[in-house]
Hints:
By secondary structure, chain A is α/β, with parallel strands linked by helices. Helix content of chain A is 24%, strand content 37%. Chain A has helices spanning 60-66, 76-86, 103-110, 122-135, 169-175, 189-199; strands spanning 9-13, 17-20, 24-27, 30-33, 45-48, 51-56, 93-97, 114-118, 139-142, 155-160, 176-186, 204-220, 223-226, 229-231, 236-242.
Amino acid sequence: MKISKEKMILLLGKEKNYVVKPILFSCEYGTFDLRKLVGKNFGIKIKIGKEEFTVVKPNIIDLLRKAKRGPQVILPKDSALITSITGCSPDWKVVDAGTGSGFLALFLANIGCKVYSYEKSKEFYEIAKKNMKNFNLDINIKNYDIIKGIREKNVDLITLDMKNPEKVVKHAFKALKGGGWVVIYSMHIEEVKKVYNELKKYDFVDIKILENIQREWQTIKQFTRPKTYMLAHTGFLTFARKF
Amino acid sequence: MKISKEKMILLLGKEKNYVVKPILFSCEYGTFDLRKLVGKNFGIKIKIGKEEFTVVKPNIIDLLRKAKRGPQVILPKDSALITSITGCSPDWKVVDAGTGSGFLALFLANIGCKVYSYEKSKEFYEIAKKNMKNFNLDINIKNYDIIKGIREKNVDLITLDMKNPEKVVKHAFKALKGGGWVVIYSMHIEEVKKVYNELKKYDFVDIKILENIQREWQTIKQFTRPKTYMLAHTGFLTFARKF
Amino acid sequence: MKISKEKMILLLGKEKNYVVKPILFSCEYGTFDLRKLVGKNFGIKIKIGKEEFTVVKPNIIDLLRKAKRGPQVILPKDSALITSITGCSPDWKVVDAGTGSGFLALFLANIGCKVYSYEKSKEFYEIAKKNMKNFNLDINIKNYDIIKGIREKNVDLITLDMKNPEKVVKHAFKALKGGGWVVIYSMHIEEVKKVYNELKKYDFVDIKILENIQREWQTIKQFTRPKTYMLAHTGFLTFARKF
Amino acid sequence: MKISKEKMILLLGKEKNYVVKPILFSCEYGTFDLRKLVGKNFGIKIKIGKEEFTVVKPNIIDLLRKAKRGPQVILPKDSALITSITGCSPDWKVVDAGTGSGFLALFLANIGCKVYSYEKSKEFYEIAKKNMKNFNLDINIKNYDIIKGIREKNVDLITLDMKNPEKVVKHAFKALKGGGWVVIYSMHIEEVKKVYNELKKYDFVDIKILENIQREWQTIKQFTRPKTYMLAHTGFLTFARKF
């Protein structure tokens, strides 16, 4: 696969990585005219100053690290939890709200889902649009408040990361196909409860509340232990499946 | 989408679920001739005895629950962790070994990866083949010991869940493209260390060791707390990226 | 120290332990007349059938394992958390309610605290009394509802494991000395919040909410990993210190 | 209880705490001549500038926060875990090595144990001595390498936080009474294994490896969730009981 002048490249280094377009590029190691790389194959190595880099086609995780962050984002670890419970796959029709910085929409679009994303804030909508342009992923993003209704029908998966998701539950129930999932991301227990109580009013089954904790380990000079500090909390995910 | 006589269906109930082919079906609630459903649309409701079910096209997680388990399996939570670190997507070429019951290969194929899976045991190879047939996912499975070598080139992701994965590291390094990932699943710290030390001999970057913990919560009569017991350990995942 | 006929002994075995009085004793290994041991020194070894046991003076943890359990108990791991935050020591005056099975009162009395324990239920009060008799620990237990008031003054530590602990906060504030601690054990988040909000109305400082998680590891044939299952939740502990 | 000129006092504030002797004291809020407090009762309130403080007799946790830290310390959460498994109580004879900054020795002495602490480094021995003087706790600390032998007999508990604790196992087995515990604190899995394998050579029972994780919660404006970051690792504790 060849490097194009429109698309992002990853400079994979031993200490640092950079995600950039093929421009005249400067970093702490020196300067390199990345425009020379256009038309060449990914995988070649370059030197910036004394530091060597492999030029790689960036994947979704590389790109997300570079993405603009407006509101709080859903981390890949939590996006992945959604795939592990719902089993979403490339042919799925997904409704997502609020878009926020678009991290979850991008993650799901990246595994081939057809994503319709609702964002009521004009400002976040613009940030998400910019992020999506850099990803070459086809997401249908709308500057619209999902509390007013969901236009899509026969939806496989609805993901909600927004204030008052409980106000969307009735729309979600209607828009989902039988066996389809709604997933709500909440930072606080009180939000979990509010949406949980609303879900119980409809014909949902398999309701469950999960949190996902990643613990990192290190091996230094043959001594192995968990890293000293860890992220203790991102959010709770509430899952429910339409009967 | 219509129900076909060849493919599995999910009977989604309020208490229990069943994944079956459309046959004359009996369960604790009674008997139902599912053959009558062939040609109808998914989403219809049926009654078996007094119990109502929605007939749903099963997703990968539904199918995995039904899959035959020979050797120990990689759970969806750990498969999903792999997607969240490597960013794998539908166009990826993936090499997987040992296949085992095929859970990881199926999970990755389900999000569109082109998976080549190696299993040296004839017995496990047959179990995995049967599982794959029920999934309609195109996986290239071979009854071959990956320690002897990897035939694929320019690979995006290599996943190893097998004894002595450290013996595959040199093959993996050669088969991967620049920026490609190798991921090793290990139950024990000693195995993590052995493969970690081997990885350090090659030009890999971003080496990290993670474990993934899922904690489930419950809300009963307006009282919220974590469930009393949890799965404390499945395995450690070691990630490394080819420079 | 000598074995007496009044006090419990621990038979420490390689597979099983027993906490009993020196009686004619039968277990799966056989029968032994423990009365012969009275007057001998702790530490001697006996054989019951083919199984060897060391006769040991039981400690608080041994005794708690044997104690009668009426209502839910506070486990030693959570009792210990209380000592690690409050720094309680042998000279402390402690008020405890509700006594329940008496586990926390016994744990604190065992490290020398002078404990006054309130239990409004006659039934639990009797269970706790029996437990305490077997421990030779001097605890002042009363069959009285602490919601009606605390009689002690100048208290170092007040521990509450009961319904509606928020109704005791005002009494606790009055009974505590400056710098003294109140600690509330709650199973559910909703209870934590209720008492937390009440604590905020008084001059308490250093308010914090903690949970304590113990993860056990195993080494089998030189392979090391966490045990597969763990206790995921016992309770939340809310701490506050009187200004 | 009265304030004396020799002993530490805790100034408990709403934002900050100070542990000091009754001297002419300055802090960010202003200056106060604490010598005026000598002979008065604990519990009185003073103002330093505009900030109010309660004058409190400091407990072990307050004092440890102020203690000098030379080598890495055992935190109260791990010290408390030791009490919750071994059930140690005021009458216990405890051998501790290496003393380090003395945190564990002080914690155990504070609940009334008679502690004999071994520290081979002259430098750490001096730090620990200073800490102990400020605590008014009677600890027998020796500048001696425990690998050369343990002088005490009939010991209830031996705690090891040192390099090569496996070299002390044979001494520990001899010094312990039947039913007594040895506990080893290790940062790394490799150290756990080495000492575990040594323990297996002797007649120890109830061998177990634990780690203790504290998760803190917060309630802000009626919204409750775990704090974002947490301490992910301090050490592993290996327990074994002499048969």
